[in-house]
Amino acid sequence: MLSSFSIRNFRSILDMTVNFSFAEKKAPAGFRESDTVFFIGSQKNGRLVPALALYGSNASGKSNVLMALGTFRECAVSGVEGKFHPNKLHPGLRPTMFEASFVRDGKRFVYAIEYDRDEFLKESLMLDNTVLFALEAERHYVDPVATPAYPAARLEEIFRVECSTPQGKQTASFLSVIGKRYPGLNPLVTAVYDFFNDGIVVLSENSIHISRGVDRLAGVLEKADDPDPLRNAFGRITELLESLDIQINRMELNRKRMRLDRDARARNYLDVDPEFLTCLTSFEKEGENIVLNTDRIRSFHQDAEGKEVEFDFMTEESSGTQIVAGLLGVFLAALESGGVVAVDELDRSLHPLLLIEMVRLFKDRRYNDRGAQLVFTAHNTDILDANLLRVSEVGIVSKTLRDGSVMTRISDFRHVGNIANFRKQYLTGRFSGIPFPYI
Predict the structure, then answer these.
(1) Which residues, including other chains, have CB under 8 Å from residue 310's CB and lie 6 or more apart?
(2) 110 DSSP β-pair partners
């Protein structure tokens, strides 16, 4: 669960902190018995919102907030190459900085990085108020991570060889090297790496192939020792899809797999049937080999005579239906594992009522009982009248040349209660973040 995310010098953002705290002074009456998830966590450990909707005019920087989270994730699980996107209108601001405070298994962590065009300048990880490691220039503090088998001197060698170039520039994150290559060294560091690698999904648009959603949910179910993760993942997705009044009676998935063996002499993979590649939906690694998957997905409708009619899902169903199906897999995976999903323009090609139900998954205790969070941008304002999002769960993004993109939650405005008409007040300009067009 994210509790805050700070961004400095990234695209249109000069300095912004996205706060996920439940900002109301009192918990809603009857919140313990309610089916609605008003907040995650306890008052002692900090109450956090399960959803955050970002509104604002075009070019205000909404998408950049999600892009920053995605870039932070990529830096954390790999390195900085190609990820430096500073604010071009303020050239005096040199490094980019990201910092996230989050909770995993009841523990509160803070992970921060600062980087330039081609190297990390700072990287640190804290648990509560205890530093687990801190790296900056020539000062490296890794003692809390050290063990008898891997003393501080050996960790320094790992940092020099596996995180840095021969010129001494740190290009790979220490978090990823320890979490991925030495997962047994420190469970806390590994847990944080797993959170960034598996627990955060950022979609630059709301369209994702249904097979990728199925694979993501199946991966979560497999870790939970599900006996048939692929079949059960597809079943859970289609069960929800059928309940959304899209007029699909049932669906079937037929997956074919092709294993590519590495040619040791040529040091590459063998040729693949081009026809197979045209239907390729996903791939996975098995040791040094790769397995390609092609899926044929069929949906079944009822015709005017009551007979079942088969459709090819990817060519005969609407784009909106395909969008919902793909997102459901990603959403259910996050709900199952307590992850974070960020989606840009969640409302694109979705009916307003479908949009509301998709967000409701994270607000309904039947689905979200593990602290999952949804962050999304949207222009459709109908959801602001749906009695679904509260004052802590709606952020307004606006931009000026002096301040760059800034975000204000409705809870930051005075005298705005949850019974207020958010939509009307937003469109009349009370919260700013709206365009003033004229022709």
Answers:
(1) 298, 299, 300
(2) 101, 126
- The pLDDT score that the predictor gives to residue 271 is 60
- The answer to whether residues 335 and 370 touch, using CB atoms and an 8 Å cutoff, is yes
Tokens encoding 257: 């797999």
Where are the extended beta strands (E) located within 177-220?
Answer: 200-203
Burial of 315 (0-12, 13-18, 19+ CB in 10 A): exposed
User: What is the torsion angle, in degrees rounded to the nearest 10, for the CA atoms of residue 320, residue 323, residue 329 and residue 333?
Assistant: -110
Q: Is the pLDDT of residue 45 over 70?
A: no
Among 14-23, 41-50, 200-209, 330-339, the range scoring the smallest mean pLDDT is 41-50
Q: What distance in Å separates the CA atoms of residue 239 and residue 312, rounded to the nearest whole number? A: 18
Q: What are residue 108's DSSP bridge partners? A: 103
Phi, psi of 210 (to 5 degrees): -55, -35
Could you tell me how many residues make up the chain? 439
The answer to whether the beta carbons of residues 70 and 61 sit under 8 Å apart is no
Q: At what angle do helices 229-243 and 210-223 cross, to 10 degrees?
A: 130
Which residues touch 220 (CB under 8 Å, ≥6 apart)? Answer: 333, 336, 337
For the chain, what is the largest distance between any 2 Cα atoms, rounded to a whole number of angstroms? 76
Q: For residue 392, which of 415, 372, 418, 367 has the smallest C-alpha distance?
A: 418
DSSP string, 313-361: HHHHS-HHHHHHHHHHHHHHHHHHHT-EEEETTTTTT--HHHHHHHHHH
Which among 288, 247, 241, 245 is positioned nearest to 268, based on CA atoms?
Answer: 288
Backbone phi, then psi, for 382, in 5-degree steps? -60, -35
Q: Are 416 and 391 in contact (CB under 8 A)?
A: yes
**Among 381, 415, 418, which residue's Cα sits nearest to residue 396?**
381
Q: What residue ranges do the domains of the chain occupy?
A: 1-36+61-199+362-439, 204-337
Tell me if residue 306 falls in helix, strand or coil. Answer: coil
